[in-house]
Design a protein that fits this description.
Chain lengths: ~100, ~625
């Protein structure tokens, strides 16, 4: 049994849904951030898979993945800084308590 | 210099106004001299224009100039220089010049034993300059829009100057009354101009006159606009029933009254009707209305002048009465007679008002003629001037007013029903009568003890009086062919639409007019000199009539009633509508609706991160499902 494109896509979809669940269900901002990373990586898997299975000579997919990983790293740095400030300010990182935007 | 430069004549005044209004406080010399200089310059500039006009041949010179074009309508800013313009320029520049010189003396008030200029004197002269400049623009204008602009400027300046002593509530009220009353007429004038222009397709006066003197013109439209234009003239020229502002306008300084009554304001209405006389001749019903309104005004003014005791108001009602004569004459088609009387009346009335001003100046603003008397001993120059002016206006030969009154009489006799003539003669007698009363009560009789300290006014005020007095005596002679190609005013005023008019004297009517004027005068003197008791008896005998007159025919009461019960009621209705519907319903309603909608719509905004996430995920999923469904 060889690895087909669809198998990898199923894996990516599963990863994405896990991440989405985490984003929606978790209360801790740190956990939500990790879940977002999971979703990003699901996309990365997809990109690499398409690149590998369609035309191995074109490296577009891999290159974009590198970009995504870089941007994600920067984003994590920023997000963690925000979360830290949040914790300093409010003593908690529970997103359910952050309802300042309530109308 | 020639008639092309006639535009300079009003320009000086506008410049003087601009400089005085903006830099009045910072000028190295007192601003009043700038204003006087401007009007003297205008008067000087008038002469080359006159000579050039005569050398080119007396007639209508239309100096067209384009101002702007909007669609099919082209509006000019040119000038008409015709005999009417020339005589008006002469009158306005001359009278305004003398009045301004006189004002130099009049606008000084005694303060702690020293004579001082009025604190707002710069503004006074600035408004004076603008007033004169506006009037000069009005007489030069070759199209109705410029004329209307100048017309409104004249109204504005009269408001400013009547209310010059704004510290007095009565002056403020008088200024507002004058402005609002004339506005009623001005609205009519604007409508008339626009209707006429929409029919003829031009604002140009020459073309408009060509249109109405042509063969096919729209009778209905021309009649309607003639009525509307006359409404404007009624307001400005204080014709019954829009005359109520004129007596109250006496609240302004006396020189202003002289200017308003002789040169710049009330003559505008007569000038307008004279300028557009062909329009009225094309609409006989409108012309008849002009005559009727003029006659009623003449009688109403003359009767009111008989009973008021305020010297300036006597003169004001006299002006009203004489304006009525002019309108009546125009209604009879007596173009030349009306314009001639306009000039003669202007000269005499300016002098009368300046004389009244001198009296007020030295008697501490006293205007009640019952408190005067015998002033001829104390103020000989003023007495002489006033008497000459009053005799001239009453039509005593050979003074100025006699010739013009004679011409008017003939015009009315030829142009209208004999009823008009009879009533005109009645008004002439009344005119002599009230003038006799004024002269006698002010200058003759016993000098009151409290007036023993009265002194003649300073020379700068007496000089204009003397100049005008000489003119009042001799100005009437311009009706004669004086040689040098001048064939008398009747031929000078000849234009394409109005036939040349040689001096005509009909002995019978001249005698009638002299007898009536002298008789009225004599009756007046006799009544007030020796028969003081009989005046009181007359008053008691005709008590209801007297009451009617001292209440000014109840016209003011009527207008007050209309204002209280119609205008204010309508105002309250509108205010209620505004508060209830526009404000509560419209403005507040929108705000209230927005707040309520917000309250109902904000339920979904929970502020919870997960809710937004779910909504976003759900939305994206739905969009994807939709796209998938569509592509398959």
């Amino acid at each position: 049994m060889t690895l087909e494109l669809v198998d990898v896509q199923i894996l990516a979809a599963a990863l994405f849904c896990l991440g989405l669940y985490g984003v929606l269900a978790r209360r801790s901002a740190v956990m939500i951030l990790m879940s977002v990373e999971l979703m990003l990586n699901a996309v990365n898997v997809n990109l690499v898979a398409f690149s590998a299975f369609r035309d191995i000579s074109a490296v577009t997919g891999q290159v974009i993945v590198i970009f995504v990983i870089t941007v994600a790293a920067a984003e994590v740095g920023l997000a963690l800084a925000v979360i830290m400030r949040l914790f300093r300010a409010r003593g908690s990182v529970n997103v359910d308590e952050l309802d300042l935007m309530k109308g | 210099m020639g008639i092309e430069e006639a535009w300079l004549i009003p320009t000086y005044g506008f410049i003087a106004f601009g400089v005085l209004a903006v830099f009045g406080r910072y000028l190295p010399v007192p601003g009043k001299y700038l204003s006087v200089g401007a009007i003297v310059l205008a008067f000087v500039t008038f002469w080359p224009v006159l000579f050039d006009f005569v050398s080119r041949g007396v007639g209508e010179h239309h100096l067209a100039r384009k101002w702007f074009t909007a669609g099919d309508v082209s509006v000019g800013s040119g000038m008409i220089v015709d005999p009417l313009t020339i005589v008006m320029l002469a009158l306005v520049t001359f009278v305004a010049m003398l009045v301004q010189i006189y004002s130099l003396g009049y606008m000084k008030h005694e303060n702690n034993g020293r004579e001082q200029d009025d604190p707002n004197i710069t503004w006074y002269f600035a408004a004076h300059s603008l007033f004169t400049a506006a009037m000069l623009t009005l007489v030069l204008a070759d199209n109705m829009l410029v004329l209307y602009l100048a017309w409104e400027l004249v109204g504005l300046c009269s408001y400013l100057l009547i209310g010059f002593w704004w510290q007095r509530q009565s002056a403020v009220n008088a200024a507002k009354k004058a402005f609002i009353t004339t506005r009623v007429g001005d609205v009519g004038l604007l409508i008339g101009i626009l209707v006429l222009a929409s029919e003829t397709g031009t604002f140009d006066i020459t073309q408009t006159i060509a249109y109405v003197t042509g063969d096919d013109y729209n009778q209905g439209v021309v009649t309607f606009s003639a009525f509307m234009i006359f409404l404007g003239a009624m307001g400005k020229s204080a014709q019954f029933p829009l005359h109520v502002w004129l007596p109250d306008a006496m609240e302004g300084p006396s020189p202003v009254s002289a200017l308003i009554h002789a040169a710049t304001m009330v003559t505008a209405g007569v000038f307008l009707v004279a300028r557009l006389l062909p329009v009225f001749e094309a609409a006989p019903s409108a012309q008849l209305t002009v005559a009727i309104v003029g006659l009623v005004t003449a009688i109403v003014g003359a009767t009111l002048a008989l009973v008021v005791t305020d010297l300036k108001r006597i003169l004001a009602y006299s002006t009203m009465s004489h304006l009525g004569f002019m309108m009546l004459t125009l209604g009879a088609g007596g173009y030349m007679a009306a314009v001639f009387h306009l000039l003669m009346h202007g000269v005499s009335k300016a002098m009368l008002f300046l004389s009244a001003g001198s009296i007020m100046h030295v008697m501490h603003e006293e205007t009640d003629i019952n408190k005067m008397g015998g002033l001829r001993h104390r103020m000989p120059v003023t007495a002489l001037a006033f008497t000459v002016g009053a005799l001239a206006l009453s039509g005593i030969p050979p003074l100025a007013g006699f010739w013009s009154k004679d011409e008017m009489l003939l015009a009315i006799k030829d142009g209208l029903n004999p009823v008009f003539l009879v009533l005109f003669l009645v008004a002439v007698v009344l005119s002599a009568l009230y003038m006799a009363r004024a002269i006698y009560l002010v200058f003759y009789g016993e000098l009151k003890p409290e007036n023993r300290g009265v002194q003649e006014a300073p020379g700068i005020m007496s000089l204009p009086l003397l100049v005008l007095a000489i003119l009042s005596v001799f100005a009437g002679f311009i009706i004669f062919p004086l040689g040098g190609g001048y064939e008398g005013i009747g031929n000078f005023l000849f234009t394409a639409e109005h036939h040349a008019h040689d001096l005509t004297i009909e002995a019978l009517w001249t005698i009638v007019s002299i007898v009536l004027a002298v008789g009225g005068m004599a009756l007046g003197i006799w009544l007030f000199k020796s028969q003081r008791a009989s005046v009181d008896a007359l008053r008691a005998r005709f008590a209801p009539l007297h009451r009617l007159l001292i209440n000014r025919y109840y016209m003011d009461a009527l207008y007050q009633w209309i204002v209280d019960n119609v205008v204010l009621a309508a105002g309250r209705l509108v205010a209620f509508f505004d508060r209830r519907f526009v404000n509560d319903g419209g403005v507040n309603g929108v705000g209230y609706a927005t707040v309520e909608a917000g309250k109902r719509l904000r339920v979904h905004v929970t502020g919870l991160f997960a809710d937004y996430g779910i909504a976003m995920t759900g939305g994206v999923s739905l969009i994807v499902l939709y796209l998938w469904w569509r592509s398959s």
